[in-house]
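Please check this chain.
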Amino acid sequence: MPHNKVQVPRISDAVAASLEKRILEGSLKPGDRLPPERELAAELGVSRPSLREAIQKLASKGMVQSRQGGGTYVTHRLEATFFDPWQDMMGAHPTLREDLLEFRRMLEGQAAEWAAERATEADLRRLTQALAALDAAFDDGDPERRAAADIDFHQAVGEATHNALIGHLSAALLRLMLDNIRLNLGELQRIPAAISLLKSQHAAIHAAIVERKPAAARAAAETHIDFVRESLAQSLRSAARRESAERRLNV
């Protein structure tokens, strides 16, 4: 009888799968530079030619790319397939913002619930650090810094679910909402009570996750997004009124 040969996986395939897993789980994020070839080969215990072959496999999938000046970087491929068409649609159809916020409420409520159930000690440390950075950004008053810190906090919650799709969908959604987040935080800066509310809402999400209270975590996340939806609507109305007033002055 003929015997089937055992298929031994190539070292480069195993290395590519290991690096791909890091990208999926968020250990390597879009924009991150891979460690130098010598270091990465030593860390993985493989030869540099095997590592180069593995990186080439990832490059052929669009997961990494080499940049002029040196270095190999993780691409936005996993988020881009969601982000790019919707970014164009958002510009043409502003009413989609409400649909996006409704979807974000569902996603982030579930993310907070699962994070409370699944977060590791390392996840909780990261979440605590993200909250501290967010509080400092709110106190600093720089809208750009606030927006970046806000995204980092919510992304930390998404990745604490240990669900690759939630982690990457959350990242894409937050990138899609970046302009709205900047606008919203810029408007809310004018209202001291609103900043205090935002800080307490983020603290409530953090506390419920750390205390392993899934239902409370979901409720805190949904309450936060409800507040964001209403305050963003007010921000857009305020911005429209200011633009209208400026046009009248220039007539």
